Protein backbone atom coordinates (compact mmCIF):
# COMPACT_ATOMS: atom_id res chain seq x y z
CA UNK A 1 0.00 0.00 0.00
CA UNK A 2 1.20 3.52 -0.72
CA UNK A 3 -0.05 7.03 -0.17
CA UNK A 4 -0.39 8.20 -3.79
CA UNK A 5 -4.15 8.24 -4.30
CA UNK A 6 -6.75 10.08 -6.39
CA UNK A 7 -8.89 12.53 -4.52
CA UNK A 8 -11.20 15.22 -5.96
CA UNK A 9 -10.21 14.24 -9.50
CA UNK A 10 -6.46 14.49 -9.08
CA UNK A 11 -3.50 12.51 -7.80
CA UNK A 12 -2.20 13.39 -4.34
CA UNK A 13 0.89 12.45 -2.39
CA UNK A 14 -0.52 12.08 1.13
CA UNK A 15 -2.34 15.40 1.70
CA UNK A 16 -0.62 17.37 -1.06
CA UNK A 17 -1.87 17.51 -4.66
CA UNK A 18 0.98 16.59 -7.03
CA UNK A 19 -0.07 19.46 -9.30
CA UNK A 20 0.78 21.87 -6.47
CA UNK A 21 4.30 20.45 -6.25
CA UNK A 22 4.72 20.68 -10.02
CA UNK A 23 3.64 24.31 -9.93
CA UNK A 24 5.98 25.19 -7.06
CA UNK A 25 9.08 23.18 -8.01
CA UNK A 26 8.69 22.57 -11.74
CA UNK A 27 9.03 19.27 -13.60
CA UNK A 28 10.53 16.76 -13.86
CA UNK A 29 10.73 16.08 -10.12
CA UNK A 30 10.87 13.06 -7.83
CA UNK A 31 8.27 13.05 -5.06
CA UNK A 32 8.46 10.74 -2.03
CA UNK A 33 5.86 9.94 0.60
CA UNK A 34 7.17 9.78 4.17
CA UNK A 35 4.18 7.75 5.38
CA UNK A 36 4.82 5.12 2.72
CA UNK A 37 8.53 4.87 3.54
CA UNK A 38 7.79 4.46 7.24
CA UNK A 39 5.01 1.98 6.65
CA UNK A 40 7.28 -0.23 4.57
CA UNK A 41 10.02 -0.07 7.19
CA UNK A 42 7.55 -1.09 9.88
CA UNK A 43 6.34 -4.07 7.80
CA UNK A 44 9.83 -5.56 8.03
CA UNK A 45 10.03 -4.87 11.75
CA UNK A 46 6.72 -6.67 12.24
CA UNK A 47 7.80 -9.53 9.98
CA UNK A 48 10.86 -10.15 12.16
CA UNK A 49 9.06 -9.71 15.48
CA UNK A 50 10.28 -12.08 18.16
CA UNK A 51 13.75 -12.37 16.64
CA UNK A 52 16.47 -9.87 17.56
CA UNK A 53 16.95 -7.93 14.34
CA UNK A 54 18.08 -4.78 12.57
CA UNK A 55 16.56 -3.60 9.30
CA UNK A 56 19.39 -1.93 7.38
CA UNK A 57 17.97 0.17 4.57
CA UNK A 58 19.99 -0.32 1.36
CA UNK A 59 21.09 3.27 0.84
CA UNK A 60 21.84 2.64 -2.83
CA UNK A 61 18.09 2.50 -3.54
CA UNK A 62 17.39 6.06 -2.41
CA UNK A 63 20.20 7.95 -0.78
CA UNK A 64 18.80 11.41 -0.06
CA UNK A 65 19.91 12.44 3.44
CA UNK A 66 16.39 13.55 4.40
CA UNK A 67 15.04 10.09 3.58
CA UNK A 68 17.88 8.44 5.52
CA UNK A 69 17.11 10.66 8.51
CA UNK A 70 13.40 9.82 8.34
CA UNK A 71 14.19 6.09 8.40
CA UNK A 72 17.14 6.36 10.77
CA UNK A 73 15.08 8.28 13.33
CA UNK A 74 12.67 5.32 13.34
CA UNK A 75 15.55 3.04 14.32
CA UNK A 76 16.56 1.73 10.89
CA UNK A 77 20.15 0.75 10.26
CA UNK A 78 21.82 1.38 6.91
CA UNK A 79 23.56 -0.84 4.39
CA UNK A 80 26.18 1.22 2.55
CA UNK A 81 28.46 0.31 -0.35
CA UNK A 82 30.74 3.32 -0.66
CA UNK A 83 32.29 6.08 1.40
CA UNK A 84 29.75 8.44 -0.12
CA UNK A 85 26.87 6.34 1.19
CA UNK A 86 28.60 5.94 4.55
CA UNK A 87 28.96 9.70 4.83
CA UNK A 88 25.34 10.22 3.82
CA UNK A 89 24.16 7.83 6.56
CA UNK A 90 26.31 9.61 9.14
CA UNK A 91 25.13 13.03 7.90
CA UNK A 92 21.58 11.78 8.48
CA UNK A 93 22.51 11.11 12.11
CA UNK A 94 22.66 7.31 11.89
CA UNK A 95 25.23 6.02 14.40
CA UNK A 96 28.07 3.84 13.15
CA UNK A 97 26.84 0.88 15.19
CA UNK A 98 23.81 0.71 12.90
CA UNK A 99 25.76 0.84 9.61
CA UNK A 100 26.95 -2.23 7.70
CA UNK A 101 29.44 -1.78 4.87
CA UNK A 102 28.91 -4.07 1.84
CA UNK A 103 30.40 -4.16 -1.65
CA UNK A 104 33.10 -6.05 -3.56
CA UNK A 105 35.61 -3.25 -3.90
CA UNK A 106 36.01 -1.32 -0.67
CA UNK A 107 39.21 0.68 -0.80
CA UNK A 108 41.60 1.07 2.13
CA UNK A 109 40.56 4.71 2.36
CA UNK A 110 36.91 3.72 2.68
CA UNK A 111 37.75 1.14 5.33
CA UNK A 112 39.70 3.74 7.30
CA UNK A 113 36.85 6.26 7.21
CA UNK A 114 34.35 3.69 8.48
CA UNK A 115 36.66 2.35 11.20
CA UNK A 116 37.33 5.85 12.49
CA UNK A 117 33.72 7.02 12.17
CA UNK A 118 32.21 3.85 13.64
CA UNK A 119 30.83 0.77 11.95
CA UNK A 120 28.66 -2.19 12.92
CA UNK A 121 30.31 -4.65 10.55
CA UNK A 122 32.02 -5.01 7.21
CA UNK A 123 30.58 -7.58 4.85
CA UNK A 124 33.69 -8.93 3.15
CA UNK A 125 33.67 -10.45 -0.29
CA UNK A 126 37.17 -11.80 -0.95
CA UNK A 127 40.41 -12.91 0.71
CA UNK A 128 42.42 -9.91 -0.54
CA UNK A 129 39.77 -7.65 0.97
CA UNK A 130 40.05 -9.50 4.31
CA UNK A 131 43.80 -8.96 4.35
CA UNK A 132 43.48 -5.29 3.43
CA UNK A 133 40.91 -4.63 6.17
CA UNK A 134 43.03 -6.44 8.76
CA UNK A 135 46.02 -4.25 7.85
CA UNK A 136 44.00 -1.03 7.99
CA UNK A 137 42.41 -1.97 11.32
CA UNK A 138 45.74 -2.99 12.83
CA UNK A 139 47.34 0.27 11.73
CA UNK A 140 44.57 2.14 13.56
CA UNK A 141 44.89 -0.11 16.62
CA UNK A 142 41.32 -1.41 16.33
CA UNK A 143 39.62 -4.67 15.45
CA UNK A 144 37.07 -4.70 12.63
CA UNK A 145 33.86 -6.72 13.10
CA UNK A 146 33.26 -8.79 9.96
CA UNK A 147 30.85 -11.08 8.23
CA UNK A 148 31.88 -12.88 5.07
CA UNK A 149 29.50 -12.75 2.15
CA UNK A 150 28.99 -16.24 0.87
CA UNK A 151 27.73 -16.98 -2.59
CA UNK A 152 25.20 -19.81 -2.15
CA UNK A 153 24.93 -20.59 -5.88
CA UNK A 154 21.16 -20.32 -6.08
CA UNK A 155 19.24 -18.94 -9.01
CA UNK A 156 17.34 -15.87 -7.85
CA UNK A 157 15.13 -16.05 -10.98
CA UNK A 158 15.31 -12.33 -11.58
CA UNK A 159 16.71 -10.04 -14.30
CA UNK A 160 20.27 -11.18 -15.17
CA UNK A 161 21.70 -7.72 -14.44
CA UNK A 162 20.46 -7.80 -10.84
CA UNK A 163 21.03 -11.47 -9.92
CA UNK A 164 24.01 -11.88 -7.60
CA UNK A 165 23.80 -15.30 -5.98
CA UNK A 166 25.00 -17.58 -8.79
CA UNK A 167 28.55 -18.86 -8.77
CA UNK A 168 29.31 -17.00 -12.01
CA UNK A 169 28.55 -13.63 -10.39
CA UNK A 170 31.34 -11.46 -8.96
CA UNK A 171 29.82 -11.43 -5.48
CA UNK A 172 30.94 -13.18 -2.32
CA UNK A 173 33.02 -16.26 -1.64
CA UNK A 174 31.72 -19.61 -2.95
CA UNK A 175 29.93 -21.26 -0.05
CA UNK A 176 32.00 -24.42 -0.59
CA UNK A 177 35.14 -22.41 0.24
CA UNK A 178 33.64 -20.63 3.23
CA UNK A 179 35.38 -22.72 5.92
CA UNK A 180 38.84 -21.84 4.59
CA UNK A 181 37.88 -18.18 4.30
CA UNK A 182 36.58 -18.06 7.86
CA UNK A 183 39.70 -19.83 9.13
CA UNK A 184 41.85 -17.19 7.45
CA UNK A 185 39.67 -14.33 8.75
CA UNK A 186 39.94 -15.69 12.30
CA UNK A 187 43.72 -15.80 11.97
CA UNK A 188 44.04 -12.17 10.90
CA UNK A 189 44.83 -9.86 13.81
CA UNK A 190 42.66 -6.93 12.69
CA UNK A 191 39.43 -8.88 12.18
CA UNK A 192 36.78 -10.28 14.48
CA UNK A 193 34.32 -12.68 12.88
CA UNK A 194 30.75 -11.90 13.96
CA UNK A 195 28.53 -13.40 11.31
CA UNK A 196 27.63 -14.57 7.84
CA UNK A 197 26.31 -12.42 5.01
CA UNK A 198 24.35 -13.39 1.92
CA UNK A 199 22.49 -11.46 -0.79
CA UNK A 200 21.22 -13.27 -3.86
CA UNK A 201 19.69 -10.58 -6.02
CA UNK A 202 17.05 -7.93 -6.36
CA UNK A 203 13.37 -7.81 -7.38
CA UNK A 204 12.76 -11.42 -6.35
CA UNK A 205 9.09 -12.27 -6.69
CA UNK A 206 9.36 -15.85 -5.44
CA UNK A 207 10.43 -16.85 -1.94
CA UNK A 208 11.91 -20.21 -2.93
CA UNK A 209 15.40 -18.85 -3.79
CA UNK A 210 15.54 -17.05 -0.42
CA UNK A 211 14.52 -20.24 1.32
CA UNK A 212 17.20 -22.26 -0.50
CA UNK A 213 19.90 -19.69 0.27
CA UNK A 214 18.95 -19.28 3.93
CA UNK A 215 18.94 -23.07 4.47
CA UNK A 216 22.50 -23.14 3.19
CA UNK A 217 23.39 -20.29 5.54
CA UNK A 218 21.84 -22.20 8.47
CA UNK A 219 23.92 -25.29 7.67
CA UNK A 220 27.03 -23.18 7.33
CA UNK A 221 26.34 -21.53 10.70
CA UNK A 222 26.44 -24.95 12.40
CA UNK A 223 29.59 -25.96 10.54
CA UNK A 224 31.40 -22.72 11.39
CA UNK A 225 30.33 -22.90 15.02
CA UNK A 226 31.71 -26.43 15.17
CA UNK A 227 34.95 -25.00 13.78
CA UNK A 228 35.04 -22.64 16.75
CA UNK A 229 33.74 -19.40 15.21
CA UNK A 230 31.33 -17.22 17.13
CA UNK A 231 28.52 -16.62 14.67
CA UNK A 232 26.13 -14.20 16.36
CA UNK A 233 24.67 -12.33 13.38
CA UNK A 234 23.22 -13.35 10.05
CA UNK A 235 22.90 -10.65 7.39
CA UNK A 236 20.37 -12.02 4.93
CA UNK A 237 20.64 -9.24 2.35
CA UNK A 238 17.84 -7.48 0.51
CA UNK A 239 15.99 -8.31 -2.64
CA UNK A 240 12.30 -8.72 -1.90
CA UNK A 241 10.44 -7.61 -5.04
CA UNK A 242 7.58 -5.14 -5.40
CA UNK A 243 4.57 -4.93 -7.72
CA UNK A 244 5.47 -2.66 -10.65
CA UNK A 245 2.05 -2.91 -12.22
CA UNK A 246 -1.20 -2.51 -10.36
CA UNK A 247 -2.71 -5.35 -12.35
CA UNK A 248 -0.32 -8.32 -12.26
CA UNK A 249 0.28 -10.87 -9.53
CA UNK A 250 1.32 -9.67 -6.12
CA UNK A 251 4.86 -10.54 -4.93
CA UNK A 252 5.23 -12.11 -1.49
CA UNK A 253 4.64 -9.87 1.49
CA UNK A 254 7.33 -9.00 4.06
CA UNK A 255 5.39 -11.15 6.54
CA UNK A 256 5.78 -14.22 4.27
CA UNK A 257 9.46 -13.37 3.92
CA UNK A 258 9.74 -13.11 7.72
CA UNK A 259 8.22 -16.59 7.99
CA UNK A 260 10.91 -17.96 5.65
CA UNK A 261 13.57 -16.38 7.84
CA UNK A 262 12.02 -17.75 11.03
CA UNK A 263 11.71 -21.22 9.49
CA UNK A 264 15.23 -21.42 8.07
CA UNK A 265 17.49 -19.61 10.55
CA UNK A 266 15.20 -18.71 13.46
CA UNK A 267 16.44 -21.56 15.66
CA UNK A 268 20.08 -20.45 15.58
CA UNK A 269 19.75 -17.66 18.13
CA UNK A 270 21.45 -15.16 15.85
CA UNK A 271 20.63 -11.50 15.47
CA UNK A 272 19.06 -11.10 12.03
CA UNK A 273 20.03 -8.25 9.73
CA UNK A 274 18.26 -7.60 6.43
CA UNK A 275 19.07 -5.03 3.76
CA UNK A 276 15.89 -4.13 1.89
CA UNK A 277 16.03 -1.18 -0.48
CA UNK A 278 13.43 -1.47 -3.20
CA UNK A 279 10.57 -2.65 -1.02
CA UNK A 280 10.97 0.30 1.34
CA UNK A 281 11.53 3.01 -1.25
CA UNK A 282 10.14 1.77 -4.60
CA UNK A 283 6.46 2.45 -4.20
CA UNK A 284 7.14 5.40 -1.92
CA UNK A 285 8.17 7.60 -4.85
CA UNK A 286 6.88 8.90 -8.17
CA UNK A 287 8.59 10.77 -10.96
CA UNK A 288 6.40 13.68 -11.95
CA UNK A 289 6.76 14.88 -15.52
CA UNK A 290 4.96 17.05 -18.05
CA UNK A 291 4.01 16.35 -21.65
CA UNK A 292 6.02 18.62 -23.94
CA UNK A 293 4.51 17.50 -27.23
CA UNK A 294 2.19 14.89 -28.67
CA UNK A 295 3.77 13.90 -31.97
CA UNK A 296 1.85 11.93 -34.54
CA UNK A 297 4.21 9.50 -36.24
CA UNK A 298 3.89 6.81 -38.90
CA UNK A 299 1.53 4.27 -37.40
CA UNK A 300 2.37 5.37 -33.88
CA UNK A 301 2.00 8.41 -31.73
CA UNK A 302 4.69 9.68 -29.41
CA UNK A 303 4.15 11.22 -26.04
CA UNK A 304 7.24 13.38 -25.57
CA UNK A 305 7.86 14.13 -21.90
CA UNK A 306 10.22 16.50 -20.12
CA UNK A 307 11.66 13.50 -18.20
CA UNK A 308 14.17 11.29 -19.97
CA UNK A 309 16.36 8.23 -19.59
CA UNK A 310 18.95 10.29 -17.72
CA UNK A 311 16.35 10.99 -15.01
CA UNK A 312 14.92 7.44 -14.80
CA UNK A 313 17.15 4.89 -16.52
CA UNK A 314 15.40 1.66 -15.48
CA UNK A 315 13.27 1.21 -18.63
CA UNK A 316 16.29 1.80 -20.91
CA UNK A 317 18.66 -0.28 -18.81
CA UNK A 318 16.53 -3.25 -17.73
CA UNK A 319 13.45 -2.96 -19.97
CA UNK A 320 11.71 -2.23 -16.69
CA UNK A 321 8.03 -1.43 -16.63
CA UNK A 322 6.79 1.62 -14.74
CA UNK A 323 3.11 2.46 -14.70
CA UNK A 324 2.50 5.92 -16.14
CA UNK A 325 -0.63 7.54 -14.76
CA UNK A 326 -2.36 10.89 -15.27
CA UNK A 327 -2.20 13.46 -12.49
CA UNK A 328 -5.65 14.77 -13.44
CA UNK A 329 -7.99 11.82 -13.15
CA UNK A 330 -9.56 11.22 -16.58
CA UNK A 331 -13.31 11.71 -16.86
CA UNK A 332 -15.47 8.83 -18.09
CA UNK A 333 -15.73 10.00 -21.72
CA UNK A 334 -12.10 11.14 -22.15
CA UNK A 335 -11.00 8.13 -24.19
CA UNK A 336 -7.74 6.23 -24.46
CA UNK A 337 -4.90 6.30 -26.94
CA UNK A 338 -1.80 4.17 -27.55
CA UNK A 339 1.49 6.05 -27.18
CA UNK A 340 5.18 5.40 -27.34
CA UNK A 341 6.28 7.35 -24.28
CA UNK A 342 9.69 8.95 -24.81
CA UNK A 343 12.00 11.61 -23.43
CA UNK A 344 13.96 14.32 -25.23
CA UNK A 345 17.36 12.53 -25.14
CA UNK A 346 18.88 11.81 -28.54
CA UNK A 347 18.76 8.01 -28.36
CA UNK A 348 16.13 5.52 -29.40
CA UNK A 349 16.69 3.86 -26.02
CA UNK A 350 15.16 6.91 -24.40
CA UNK A 351 11.82 5.15 -24.46
CA UNK A 352 9.79 4.59 -21.31
CA UNK A 353 7.03 2.52 -22.89
CA UNK A 354 6.00 1.26 -26.31
CA UNK A 355 2.40 1.22 -27.58
CA UNK A 356 1.15 1.80 -24.04
CA UNK A 357 -2.59 2.43 -23.80
CA UNK A 358 -3.00 5.62 -21.83
CA UNK A 359 -5.50 8.42 -21.40
CA UNK A 360 -5.52 10.70 -24.45
CA UNK A 361 -2.90 13.06 -22.99
CA UNK A 362 -2.36 16.52 -24.39
CA UNK A 363 0.47 19.04 -24.33
CA UNK A 364 1.03 20.43 -20.84
CA UNK A 365 -0.59 17.50 -18.99
CA UNK A 366 1.15 16.12 -15.94
CA UNK A 367 1.98 12.42 -15.68
CA UNK A 368 3.42 10.36 -12.85
CA UNK A 369 5.70 7.36 -13.16
CA UNK A 370 4.79 5.01 -10.33
CA UNK A 371 7.24 2.88 -8.33
CA UNK A 372 10.10 5.28 -9.05
CA UNK A 373 11.32 5.79 -5.48
CA UNK A 374 14.00 3.09 -5.61
CA UNK A 375 16.84 3.17 -8.15
CA UNK A 376 15.33 6.32 -9.68
CA UNK A 377 17.03 9.55 -8.57
CA UNK A 378 20.13 7.65 -7.45
CA UNK A 379 20.80 6.36 -10.96
CA UNK A 380 20.21 9.68 -12.69
CA UNK A 381 22.90 11.35 -14.77
CA UNK A 382 23.33 14.61 -16.62
CA UNK A 383 23.54 12.96 -20.03
CA UNK A 384 22.69 15.40 -22.82
CA UNK A 385 23.61 18.13 -20.30
CA UNK A 386 20.28 17.86 -18.59
CA UNK A 387 20.85 19.01 -14.99
CA UNK A 388 19.93 16.61 -12.17
CA UNK A 389 16.30 17.03 -11.20
CA UNK A 390 15.01 17.90 -7.72
CA UNK A 391 13.59 15.63 -5.03
CA UNK A 392 10.65 16.52 -2.81
CA UNK A 393 9.53 14.84 0.41
CA UNK A 394 5.87 14.95 1.41
CA UNK A 395 4.70 14.29 4.94
CA UNK A 396 0.98 14.72 5.58
CA UNK A 397 0.09 18.21 4.25
CA UNK A 398 3.67 19.50 4.11
CA UNK A 399 6.24 19.21 1.38
CA UNK A 400 9.87 20.29 1.13
CA UNK A 401 12.50 20.27 -1.57
CA UNK A 402 15.10 17.86 -0.21
CA UNK A 403 17.41 18.25 -3.18
CA UNK A 404 17.31 21.40 -5.29
CA UNK A 405 17.37 21.23 -9.06
CA UNK A 406 20.94 21.67 -10.30
CA UNK A 407 21.18 24.98 -12.12
CA UNK A 408 22.81 25.37 -15.52
CA UNK A 409 25.50 27.55 -13.95
CA UNK A 410 26.31 24.89 -11.34
CA UNK A 411 26.44 22.17 -13.96
CA UNK A 412 28.64 24.07 -16.37
CA UNK A 413 30.67 25.68 -13.56
CA UNK A 414 32.03 22.27 -12.55
CA UNK A 415 34.09 22.21 -15.74
CA UNK A 416 37.26 24.21 -15.98
CA UNK A 417 39.25 25.34 -18.98
CA UNK A 418 43.04 24.77 -18.68
CA UNK A 419 45.20 27.90 -18.76
CA UNK A 420 46.85 26.82 -22.02
CA UNK A 421 43.59 26.99 -23.99
N1 LIG B 1 22.17 -5.62 -0.26
C1 LIG B 1 23.07 -5.74 -1.25
C2 LIG B 1 24.40 -6.30 -0.96
C3 LIG B 1 22.73 -5.35 -2.56
O1 LIG B 1 23.62 -5.48 -3.54
C4 LIG B 1 21.44 -4.81 -2.82
C5 LIG B 1 21.07 -4.38 -4.17
C6 LIG B 1 20.54 -4.68 -1.74
C7 LIG B 1 20.94 -5.10 -0.48
C8 LIG B 1 19.18 -4.12 -1.90
O2 LIG B 1 18.36 -4.89 -2.73
P1 LIG B 1 16.80 -4.53 -2.90
O3 LIG B 1 16.14 -4.84 -1.59
O4 LIG B 1 16.71 -3.09 -3.24
O5 LIG B 1 16.36 -5.40 -4.00
N2 LIG B 1 19.47 -0.86 -10.09
C9 LIG B 1 18.72 -2.10 -10.07
C10 LIG B 1 18.79 -2.81 -8.74
C11 LIG B 1 20.20 -3.14 -8.31
C12 LIG B 1 20.29 -3.77 -6.95
C13 LIG B 1 21.68 -3.87 -6.48
N3 LIG B 1 21.86 -4.41 -5.17
C14 LIG B 1 17.27 -1.78 -10.46
O6 LIG B 1 16.96 -0.63 -10.74
O7 LIG B 1 16.46 -2.69 -10.54
TrEMBL record:
Residues reported to bind substrate: 278, 314, 318, 347, 375
Reaction it catalyzes: meso-2,6-diaminopimelate + H(+) = L-lysine + CO2
Residues that coordinate or bind pyridoxal 5'-phosphate: 239, 275-278, 375
Annotated pathway: Amino-acid biosynthesis; L-lysine biosynthesis via DAP pathway; L-lysine from DL-2,6-diaminopimelate: step 1/1
Domain Orn/DAP/Arg decarboxylase 2 N-terminal positions: 36-281
EC number assigned by the record: 4.1.1.20
GO MF entries: diaminopimelate decarboxylase activity; pyridoxal phosphate binding
Cofactor: pyridoxal 5'-phosphate
Function: Specifically catalyzes the decarboxylation of meso-diaminopimelate (meso-DAP) to L-lysine.
Family (UniProt): Belongs to the Orn/Lys/Arg decarboxylase class-II family. LysA subfamily.
Protein name (Swiss-Prot/TrEMBL): Diaminopimelate decarboxylase
Amino acid sequence: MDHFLYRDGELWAEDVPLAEIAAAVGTPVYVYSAATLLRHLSLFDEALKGMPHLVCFAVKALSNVAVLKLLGDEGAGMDVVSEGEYRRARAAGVPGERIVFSGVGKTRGEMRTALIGGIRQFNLESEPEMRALSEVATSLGVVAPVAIRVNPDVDAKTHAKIATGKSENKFGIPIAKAREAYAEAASLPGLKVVGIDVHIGSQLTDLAPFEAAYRKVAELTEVLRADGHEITRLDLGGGLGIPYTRSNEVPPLPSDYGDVIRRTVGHLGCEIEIEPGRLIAGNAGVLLSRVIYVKEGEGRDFLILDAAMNDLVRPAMYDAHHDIVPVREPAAGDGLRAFDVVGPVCETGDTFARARTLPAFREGDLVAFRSAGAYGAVMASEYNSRPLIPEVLVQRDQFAVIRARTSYDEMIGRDSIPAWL
